Amino acid sequence: MEEQEMQIKVKKVTDKFTESMYVLANEPSVALYRLQEHVRRSLPELAQHKADMQNWEEQSQGSIYTVEYALLLRV
C-alpha cells in the first residue's frame, strides 16, 4: 500500500514539474508573439505621427524664420 501511495505522489510531482516546465518553456514565446503583434498594430500609427511632427516642425521653422526676418526689418 505504501508503495502505491508513493507512486501516486511521485506521479503528481512529476506531472506538476512537467506542467511547470511546459509553461516556462512556452511563456517567453507567447510574450514575444504578443509584443510583435502590438508593434505591428502600433507601427503604422507611430510612423504617421512622426511624419505629422516633421511637417509641423518644417512649418514652425518657416514661421520662425519669417518672424525673425520681419523683426530684423523693423530694427
TrEMBL record:
Tell me yes or no: is Transport among this UniProt entry's keywords. Answer: no
- Alphabetical UniProt keywords: Lysosome, Membrane
Q: Where in the cell is it found?
A: Lysosome membrane
- The yes or no answer to whether the keyword Disulfide bond is present is no
Q: Record's Gene Ontology CC terms?
A: BORC complex; lysosomal membrane
Family, per the entry? Answer: Belongs to the BORCS8 family.
Q: What is this protein called?
A: Protein MEF2BNB
